[in-house]
Amino acid sequence: MKILFQARPDFMKNPAGDTVQIVSTGQALKALGIEAHFSSDPNIDVSSYDLVHIFNITRIKESYMFFLNAQKQGKKIIISPIYWPPNAYLNREGASSNALAAWKHAQPMRARLLRECDLLLPNSQIEMDVLQQDFLKIADYHVTPNGFPDSFIGTTPKLFREQFPNMPAEFVLCAARISPRKNQLWLAKACHELGLSLVLLGSINDPNYYKSVLNFSNVTHIGTLQGQLLASAYAASKAHALPSWFETPGLSSLEASACGTVVISTDQGSPKEYFQDMALYVHPLDNTSLHTALEQCYNASPLPLMQHIRKHYPWSRVAEITLEAYNKVLS
What we know:
Layout: E1 2-6, H1 17-31, E2 35-38, E3 51-55, H2 60-72, E4 77-80, H3 87-90, H4 99-105, H5 107-116, E5 119-120, H6 125-134, H7 158-163, E6 172-175, H8 184-194, E7 198-201, H9 207-214, E8 219-223, H10 227-236, E9 239-242, H11 251-258, E10 262-266, H12 271-275, E11 280-282, H13 287-296, H14 303-312, H15 315-330
Parallel strand pairs: 1-2, 1-3, 3-4, 4-5, 6-7, 6-9, 7-8, 9-10, 10-11
């Protein structure tokens, strides 16, 4: 089977959750004998592929062009929407007044893709329920979760401690691109008020926002870590906090939990479908919720969530579910 992946052209240059999903799904499918190729060319000849798999309808303009091209050539189309309505985030204090209007203006393009594709692969049932609320008519679906690297199982703090010997003995970790949507400024302020060390991993998405976050003396930014060093950083931390405005469900939360770390997660989006009652949840508009979670994380056990995530969400398992979806469309 030969699959064409299509997504925004800068998915490697400006990595985000969709980058991890695309790369990890492709690698895990390869292990199952599936040939997955990537192209951001909106005019590519797709005749040699069994189907086209498009990722991300948040950045809809590129996805819409990929869709029109595949549809014109009569090719089966699967879409991973990675969708969550950003209304609360775009209406927050200090947000651009045009952002919400631009989002709403693009909804008809999203509606067409969701209606006319052959199958949707939402990352959760919660995501699918929201799609069904926001759009009148949409295609059939096959819930296909996000995952964590199988190689993260059994990771220890040793590698991270060797590479970064000056890190505090206990710290809260946040692995995410540094941007207002990920809400690190709120996290930095809360950690500062509680006297906790905060270590940030990830690229700088918003330089001015980054400066505001680094104004707190308790914050250390390491940059981007990958592979076993990233896993070791998760294992070394007391808790991993991702208090974003929304997540579906937050890949770093999944990865951290698989490495045996307590997870503090936003309650907005689909995290509760993955983490159930085994994570500590915060609401982006409730300061008390974050303070409470940070205080509770020092006495919480990571083991129930770790065992649950390791059982259900390795990328190897996600690839099997993805292949089921491909077979469903091609049969």
